[in-house]
């Protein structure tokens, strides 16, 4: 018994705005049925006592700790700006 039908493949293709031929529908139906079959094999595994994980490796936060520190002063931040006005970088207008 097929786990996915041609009508379901056509429906998903329609939702995705894909144009598929009848030959492609046949191919996709077979391929998706095989994928679902492989996924169903996971139900046969005994997972009692297996702790759920979110990642294969035991990783921890690898980011540095946030520490408050002084930022650049305004003159230092603007020293390489090609154009500035009133302590801010001046850029060409993009609106008319």
The geometry reads as: flat
Spatial sequence of strands, sheet with the most strands: 1-2
Helical amount among residues, as a percent range?
25-40%
Give the C-alpha Rg: 29 Å
- The number of helical runs is 3
Major pleated sheet: 2 strands, antiparallel
Mean pLDDT: 90
Span between N and C termini? 64 Å
The portion of residues forming beta strands comes to under 5%
Instruction: Give me the strand/helix succession.
Output: HHHEE
**Tally of extended strands?**
2
Structural class by sheet pairing and helices: mainly alpha
Account of the protein in words:
This protein has 96 residues and is mostly helical. The chain is 35% helix and 4% strand. It contains 3 helices and 2 strands, in the order αααββ. The protein has helices at 6-15, 22-40, 74-78, and strands at 84-85, 88-89. A two-stranded antiparallel ribbon has the order 1-2. A hairpin with a 2-residue loop joins strand 1 (84-85) and strand 2 (88-89). The longest helix is centred in the first third of the chain and has 19 residues, at 22-40. The chain is flat and about 70 Å long. 1% of the residues are buried. The mean pLDDT is 90.
């Amino acid at each position: 018994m097929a786990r996915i039908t041609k009508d379901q493949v056509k429906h998903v293709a329609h939702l995705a705005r894909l144009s598929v031929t009848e030959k492609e529908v046949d191919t996709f139906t077979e391929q998706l049925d095989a994928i679902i079959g492989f996924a169903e094999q996971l139900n046969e595994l005994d997972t009692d006592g297996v702790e759920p994980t979110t990642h294969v490796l035991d990783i921890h936060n690898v980011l540095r700790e946030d520490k408050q520190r002084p930022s650049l002063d305004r003159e230092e931040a603007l020293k390489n700006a090609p154009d500035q006005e009133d302590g801010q970088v001046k850029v060409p207008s993009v609106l008319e």
